[in-house]
Structure formats: structure tokens, C-alpha cells
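Q: Joint fold for the lines below.
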Amino acid sequence: MRHIRATVDGEATEFLCDEGSTLLDALRDSLQKTGTKEGCGTGDCGACSVIFDGRLVCACLVLAAEAEGATVETVEGISKEGVLHPLQRHFLEDAALQCGICTPGFLVAAKNLLERNVDPSEEEVRFWLAGNLCRCTGYDKIIRAVLNTAAELRGESS
Amino acid sequence: MEYHSARTAEEAIELLTETGMDTRALAGGTDLLAQIRSGRVRPQRVVDLKKIPEFHSIEESESGFQIGASVSGAEIGEHPSLRAHWPGLVEAAELIGSTQIQGRASLGGNVCNASPAADTVPALIAASAICSVIGPGGRREVPVEEIVTGPGQTSLKLGEIVAHFRLSRRLKNSGDAYLRLIPRSEMDIAVVGAGVALTLDEDDLCVACRVGLGAVAPTALLVSEASNALLGRAVNDASLADLEEAARAAARPIDDKRGTRDYRIRVAGVLARRAATLAMKRARGLDK
Ligand SMILES: Cc1cc2nc3c(=O)[nH]c(=O)nc-3n(C[C@H](O)[C@H](O)[C@H](O)COP(=O)(O)OP(=O)(O)OC[C@H]3O[C@@H](n4cnc5c(N)ncnc54)[C@H](O)[C@@H]3O)c2cc1C
Ligand code: FES
Ligand code: FES
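A: Joint structure:
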């Protein structure tokens, strides 16, 4: 067992982990942050997307022990004081989810994109999100929700 | 399994050299962690290289670039000067996986995982990349094409790791390119990959050329017959047809779900030709 200190969703956090376990296991099982999902465990689906020291990564491909001293942002830190982030609101308004398993990963990945580029083209959004799989929606509504959020963040009506 | 984050190369080498123990170097983990999870490898100890300064930085100097072996694809793509000098290699690095994978996947991991279809290897071969390998016996310089010896196999000895990749600056009238074919537009493994780097002289004749092919043999190939097709000649339909022929002749691929042997051989020729054409345009400054 190893004792890890990290900043998770803005809070100084400590947890114990097996040296072979993943960051995804630690988030879900030790920290009860079950918003971050496991779809494949092999880096293919993006359901486990988190921001690790500023980079979008798959938490299933990071060892929990690597998080020592790191900053981790999950879907659970996206809304602030009970107010949904515009992306979350647009996902609801644009019906960009059905079963919802992929949604946390899409939200984390899309938020990271919009922080880097608030005016992405549809093609850029599709490429950025190519590592997030959804088996329900057919993607169009997800892409539209992201583009509509971008427009709102730029102060354009949407 | 033990996890260690090494602070220095010496510490990493010592931890990796422990006798009687299955040890593995860890960079981005995008290959290794998937392999551990599937049970394909069961290391008793992994040694994280990412905190060692030489491994996680890109240095530019008069003589060229030194790219740390664990620098991620995203960081490579964000380096404007590397992009300007070696656009083909940067494209190859950026083709690896999704945005999430890009945040972690490194050149060292891509090369040392030794997949025949690894995207950066043909591009590194074309760019004449030199690996700085360190281990219990000290440091040695190895051309990148000598690292991988077969699927999952490398020439690295016990305790040896690649510390960085060295590239020259882009010479005048030079350009490189990497193209791959996959069955969809993102997130798949190369059916074929082709990297070409070439230099033209004042009369537009090709005076230097390197061609790397991926996914058509147990290791990526340096195809000198293909470069010879261009050397001393203008890069035109006639010389490119010879290059295409030579690339096809060098390919000895397998049949699998991504493509048949015959298809891969054909595509190897086509991609080598297209990559050479793009590299030539870059050498002439017609295309970045
Ligand atoms: C969803 C997904 C998509 C992918 N798509 C692609 C793709 O399109 N193209 C492609 O080529 N690959 C792809 N890959 C494979 C993988 O991402 C790449 O090979 C990546 O470059 C590996 O780098 P890494 O830093 O993650 O390596 P790691 O997983 O950390 O290491 C890989 C291997 O290399 C060894 N190693 C790492 N660094 C060193 C070093 N410095 N010295 C010696 N040994 C070392 C490790 O011990 C391990 O055996 C994909 C993987 C996933 C999960
Ligand atoms: S669970 Fe991590 S990518 Fe699918
Ligand atoms: S909403 Fe079900 S997988 Fe996307």
C-alpha cells in the first residue's frame, strides 16, 4: 500500500492505493468519485477521461501511484456550487446523452478543448473527441452541444 | 508490483538492473498499462522515467534537437520549432491515438514497445534519428533502425533505456513527411506507414533521401533501394515510379483483418510515393 497526496477537484486529498492499481480505481474505489466511468480499461473509450496536471488523459492508463503531488480534475469538479457548467447545461438542452455512461468523459474532454480554443470548428471538435466513444447518441447531438457551448462562451447567442 | 519514480537516470538504471526481477520502464503507460491489465506482462517492478529531466524535455541547439524519450505527443505537437524543422515526424507523433493518448504517449515508448506498426518509427528512421541509450555500461549512440529487432523485441540490454532522440536541424532545401493508412479516420493501427526525408540541390536534384516503411515487415524498414531510386535524379514521375516499385519490393507484410498481403504491398508503394512528393514540396518550400 502506498500513501498518495494529490489535489483532486481543487481539494488537497490523501488516499491509500495498491502500487499496481490505476488512478481510475483510486478515484472510484478509494475516493468514491464514481462520476469517472470505466468503459474499456484499455484507453479506447474515453469514459475515464480526467485532466492530469493540465493534460487530458485516460485515468485507466495512469497508475494511482503516479498521482503523488499531481493535480487531478474530474467531472465532479465541473459544476460550481450546484450551478451546472454551460457544457453540462447544453448537454441536457441538446439531448446529448442517453444512458450517460460516456457523458462524464465527453464533458471533461470537451471542457479541456474549450479552455484551449473557444472557437473550434466542427472538424476540430470531432477530432478532439475521437477518443470518446458513445454507443447511444450517434455523436451529432454531442458535437452540437459542444459547438453551442462554445458559441455561448464567446458571447454569441446559441 | 512495485512502482518507483526515478529522479535520475542512474537511479532508474539501478532499479531496472535488479537481477532475478521482471522490471519494466514506464513512460506514458499507454502500451504498458494495457499489457499489464490484460496479463500479457506481469512486471514485479515498474520504473517511471517521466520525472528525469533529460527524459521529459525538448532541447534545441545549433546542432539540432534533443527530444526526451518520455516527452508526450501533445508536447511534441506544441513545439513550434520542431514542427517547422521536422513536420513529418511531428505528424507521426500526433497520429498516435486520441487526444487522451496524446497526453501521455512518448517516442521512447512507441519505439521500445516494438510494434511493427508503430507510427513514429518510420518517420524517425527517415529523419536519421539517433537514440542516446544509457545503461549499466554507460552511454551509447544507436541509429533508431537498430533498436527494434522483431515484434516486441529490442536490441536494448538488461537495464538499458533510451534517454533521448537526437535530430539534426532541417538542412536547406530539405523536407520530411509521414503518411499512414488506417481503415477509419482516427484511432486505429496502421495498415501501412511511410516516412520520407529528402534534400534537393540547387538544380532540384535529390542529393539525400531516406525512406522508412512501417507495418509491412516484423520491424519498420529502412528501404535504401527506394532512396536510391531518387538519388541524383529529379523528383518526377519517372523517379517516383522507381521509388514506388522499390517500396513494393521491400514490403513483406502479413494478411490480417486490416488488410491482405497484396493490398499492403500496393499501399506501401502508393504511400511511399505520396510521402516523397510531400517531402519534396516541403523541401521546395511549397508546403510547410
Ligand atoms: C487507444 C490507443 C490508441 C493507440 N494508437 C496508436 C497509434 O495510432 N499509433 C501508434 O503507433 N501507437 C498507438 N498506440 C500505442 C501507444 O500509445 C504508443 O505506442 C505510445 O507511443 C507508447 O508510448 P508510452 O509512453 O505510452 O509507452 P509505455 O507504455 O510507457 O511503454 C511502452 C514500452 O516501452 C518501454 N519503454 C518506454 N520508454 C522507454 C525508454 N525510454 N527506454 C526503454 N524502454 C522504454 C516500456 O517498458 C514498455 O515496454 C495506441 C494505444 C492506445 C491505448
Ligand atoms: S475506461 Fe479508460 S479509456 Fe475506456
Ligand atoms: S449515452 Fe450511452 S454511451 Fe453515450
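Q: Anything notable?
A: Chain B has a mean pLDDT of 96. The longest helix of chain B spans residues 261-283.
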